[in-house]
């Protein structure tokens, strides 16, 4: 294990020429970032997650109720034992052949069965209230950490001065503000990384997971090799997008970061940071496209029909009319086997009376 760690933290990869890890050890005169500092982020991530549960329960939910946001979810599908068995035991997305077999068994038209499966899939999605509470938590944290970042950076001489930002790199001492900023940001994204598996699942789940991994990597590596000054700028810029800050700040900071690399010159880890930053930029461009698409739909229709990131399904031909009454059959048509009916639908299931 020691050999693997020594190989991973190779000085010639992570640090500029003629700089060693020994040069970044703490002294009586100055304190530098240490990798072990980041261990604190793990228990703090758990605390942030618990704080989120308290926030959503006692702050976000009352706010939602005050705004008349109800806990009603999507329209529930009409109870049907046969379709429920198919949905839970076989498939949630029946193909055309199976739909035709179910249509013959239930004496329902295919469109009605498709609507039932769509409503049944949506039925498992969280309510608007749950979405509101989740979004309010993220907005509140981003607003707080961005405000802290702006107040902290306003006191620093390297905010708009590229040369000052990289002056004496990597021998720049670690301040309490930078340490707090980094640990809190890392803790929050660690909590998001794991809570993503319990949060509302959206169509961009894997993309969001990749975003969290890239962000955590940037925060961790930039702290360890003491790129903390430029790291604080990137974090503040990143949080700005989540609280609807003017985009002009982004362009100025990007130019600042591009120029800064010419001052220190590239070294191997330089490519890692740039590739991760480019990855974040591509992900943000993708989400910008979804936002513009939603806004355009809202303008054209006069309202927002749905979030493009949502898994809630909808159809222009869907209406609120209930499916027709199913007919009782003693057995399935078109032949059966002992487990399933023709084309994958089930038989031998008691039919509930539907009214």
From TrEMBL:
GO terms for biological process: ceramide biosynthetic process. Residues 307-355 are annotated as: Disordered. It is a multi-pass membrane protein. Its main location: endoplasmic reticulum. It comes from the Eukaryota. GO terms for molecular function: DNA binding; sphingosine N-acyltransferase activity. Residues 83-127 form the Homeobox domain. Residues 85-128 bind DNA. Pathway: Lipid metabolism; sphingolipid metabolism; Sphingolipid metabolism. The keyword Transmembrane applies. One of its GO terms (cellular component) is nucleus. It is found in: Endoplasmic reticulum membrane; Nucleus. InterPro entries: HD (IPR001356), Homeodomain-like_sf (IPR009057), Lag1/Lac1-like (IPR016439), TLC-dom (IPR006634). The keyword Membrane applies. Residues 333-344 have a biased composition (Low complexity). It catalyses: sphinganine + octadecanoyl-CoA = N-(octadecanoyl)-sphinganine + CoA + H(+). PANTHER family: CERAMIDE SYNTHASE 6, LONGEVITY ASSURANCE FACTOR 1 LAG1. This is Ceramide synthase 6. It comes from Cynoglossus semilaevis.
